Amino acid sequence: MTMNRNLLTSALLAIAMVPLASGCGSDESAERDMGDLGAANFSRSRNDEGQIVERYDSTGDGVADVLKYFEESADPEDPSLTQRRLVKLEIDANGDGNINVRRIFDEANTVRSEELDVDLDGKVDAILYFDGGKLTRKELIEAESGRVGTTRHYSEGTLIRVEKDENADERIDYWEFYEEGVLTRVGRDTNGDGQADTWQAR
Predict the structure, then answer these.
(1) How far does the signal peptide extend, from start to end residue (predicted)?
(2) Are 55 and 72 a contacting pair, CB within 8 Å?
(3) What are the backbone angles phi and psi of residue 143, rounded to the nearest 5°?
């Protein structure tokens, strides 16, 4: 199968966003999405941890674009049967061999965390955390230092607080507070004690 690399990147990233939008991380939905892509090559093996690894090469260039990791266990309702659970999904969006999207799933088959390489340079730019399929926290990674520079906190999917390390000393010194998604006040730590000592209403 031949596909423009830019179109493939968009398609794979769109697939990566499906569980976030629907709150579903099921194996069936992932299989359906890959079927829509018309994956040219598929392989299955076990890794050193005993997980089943499925690799999809949608362009036929020998590089897997999507990797899915499964764990198997006995069915609690019928121990004679084996059930399989998706625990991790990885996507190489531009075919350079680096993972650009990595999702970890919980036992309820919902996304627990996600690492994103937004600019496709092979380095993680953001880490998202979820509870019950809902976004609770987003950490933005500084490109040069590799440290978390900004953390965004959410409640029921709505932004409520932003914390920043503006001095790059691994300490929070800037805060933004939101109500119903609207910025209401800003706090700054000017003396380095880790507490906001100046406030500005918005």
Answers:
(1) 1-21
(2) no
(3) -65, -45
Following DSSP, what letter does each residue of 141-154 receive, concatenated?
A: EPTTT-SEEEEEEE
180/161 Cα distance (integer angstroms): 11
To which H or E segment does residue 138 belong? strand 134-141
Q: Which amino acid is at 145?
A: S
The token pair at 142 is: 């500084």
Q: Which of 152, 148, 201, 146 is nearest to 181 (CA)?
A: 152
Which is more confident, 61 or 113?
Answer: 113
Structure tokens at 7: 């179109």
**27: part of which helix (H) or strand (E)?**
helix 27-37
Query: Long-range contact list for 46-52, CB < 8 A, 24+ apart?
Result: 51/87, 52/84
CA 45 to CA 68: how far, in whole Å?
Answer: 11
Q: Quick one: tokens of 159?
A: 């932004």
